[in-house]
Amino acid sequence: MQYETTQGAFPRKPKLVTTKRTGRKVCLIGLYPKRDPAMPEKISNHGLRMVEATLRASSLEDLEVSVFDLVDALADELFEEIVALDPDVVGFSTYLWSLPTFDQVAKKLHRQDPTRILVFGGPSARPAMFNQLPFHHLRELVDILVTGEGEHAFLEIVASQQRSFEHWKRIPGLALWDGNAWFNTLTRPLGDLNELASPYSMNLVPHGGLAVLQTYRGCPFTCAYCEWGTMESPKRVRTQEHLIQELTALQISNPLGALMVDAGLNLNERAFHELAVAAKQTGYFKNKRLICEVYPAKIQSHHMEFMSQVGEPLIGVGLQSFDKTALTTMERTLEEEKFDSHIEQMNAIAHVAIEIIMGLPGDSPDTFRETFWRARSYPCTLRVYHCVVLPSALMVRSPPEHLLDYDPFSLKMNSCLGWTAEAIERECRFLSAMAQESGGAIGEFLWVFPPP
Rounded CA gap, 129 and 177, in Å? Predict the structure, then answer.
């Protein structure tokens, strides 16, 4: 694969901006790809909207905020729209699918006006990602990576009277490129979710589609393939009062239902209790869809009772693999003796999808096939994900013996410990053929199989 040579092509952005820009004219950009046939209905970019809500709820004077919450946009058209607004600060909500497009837009914006502040946040806004060969040049173009929680970090960036490298070093939760190495600022303290402005209460999110619901942040597990990996804090839980306000606001925007972006419905008992009370008081989910993840070993009767009261419950069960060696390599556990009974219980009240990963380091084609056929035997949907090397997960947490080789753009695993490139290609063909044969769906990163 050939990459554009960019060394020396972009003059270093001045670290102290001396133009008359106030810094209060902001443009926020999120971009989803064209709807994948294996993915659910339209979902707004929740991180983007949370930052927008925080800015609009602030007391900053002369603040102007424009938002592009886009699907399948072209880089040239997006660049022209941004330039027409002439913002002082441009914030990009960056995922693996949007980074290549934002890369092109950032190049054009830098050439057009290098004094404009470019801020990248989101899961792909990480030094490890910008150290990938295709994106080296972004280190010279992008002023700030927001690596911690984005709401207040971005607000502090916009509120800054001095827009310089030395000033940004004092803002927690950022990564800055000094021309030779990354400088990581202090870790941003965990905030109280109940103090964050709600984009739904402020009517910022387009109506319809699927809403995004979050009751807590973080995860008690540190699975190597996943980017969560942060223990929850008591302040990370939204109270029932706050959730009642959120569900009431959702009734106005009238989505089909909600996608929970929590690490799991049953991984934070206090958060679940608050949600259950709010849902009962508002009756919101009686005729709505709820998509959530459940950790099977921790499912209890009160979780089942809650889901039985939902109009259309869709439960994802992250199995990943039945192979204990692969799970141990990925720092994941499985209480196999409880798995069958819990799947049976959940399947009686909800639409259940078992989720496994193809191409995990430490797994192999033979053990993957065993996992596939066993998972396929359950009366559930099966989702098979192509292993991806995420910037805050395998990209920085895999030891050298994992022998990772992956596509630097899509981050799909090409080969690794236990998998040759030929074996992964063979499994991709096998999964596509099986999905077609069973009437399933083939997506960019996953295959979906209906219940057998």
Answer: 13
Token pair, residue 256, equals 């089909």
Q: What is the pLDDT of residue 425?
A: 98
pLDDT of residue 229: 55
Q: What's the distance, CA 376 to chain centroid? A: 27
How does pLDDT run across 6-37, given as a tens digit for each residue? 333 444 444 444 456 878 999 999 998 877 66
Average pLDDT over residues 145-170: 93
**pLDDT tens digits, 407-417:** 999 999 999 99
Which domains, ranges and CATH numbers included, belong to the chain? Answer: 25-179 (3.40.50.280), 207-449 (3.80.30.20)
* pLDDT higher than threshold 90 for residue 333: no
- Give the residue-averaged pLDDT of 101-130: 95
Q: How far apart are CA 246 and CA 60, in angstroms?
A: 25
Structure-block tokens of residue 20: 């008359």
Q: At 126, is the pLDDT very low, low, confident or very high (cuts 50, 70, 90)?
A: very high
* Per-residue burial over 362-389, b = 16 or more CB atoms within 10 Å of its CB, e = otherwise: bbbbebbeebbeebbebebbbbbbbbbb
In the 3-class helix/strand/coil scheme, how is the chain assigned residue by residue? CCCCCCCCCCCCCCCECCCCCCCCEEEEEEEECCCCCCCCCCECCHHHHHHHHHHHCCCCCCCEEEEEEEECCCHHHHHHHHHHHCCCEEEEECCCCCHHHHHHHHHHHHHHCCCCEEEEECCCCCHHHHCCHHHCCHHHHCCEEECCCHHHHHHHHHHCCCCEHHHHCCCCCEEEECCCCEEECCCCCCCCHHHCCCCCCCCCCCCCCEEEECCECCCCCCCCCCCCCCCCCHHHECCHHHHHHHHHHHHHHCCCEEEECCCCCCCCHHHHHHHHHHHHHHCHHHHCEEEEECCHHHCCHHHHHHHHCCCEEEEEEEEECCCHHHHHHCCCCCCHHHHHHHHHHHHCCCEEEEEEEECCCCCCHHHHHHHHHHHHCCCCEEEEEECECCCCCHHHHCCHHHCCEECCCCCEEEEECCECHHHHHHHHHHHHHHHHHHCCEECCCEEEECCC
In angstroms, rounded to a whole number, what is the distance separating the alpha carbons of residues 91 and 97? 16
What single-letter amino acid sits at 412? K
Q: Which residues pair with 211 in a beta bridge?
A: 258
Both tokens assigned to 56: 């609009």
Is the four-CA dihedral 93, 97, 99, 100 of positive or negative sign? negative
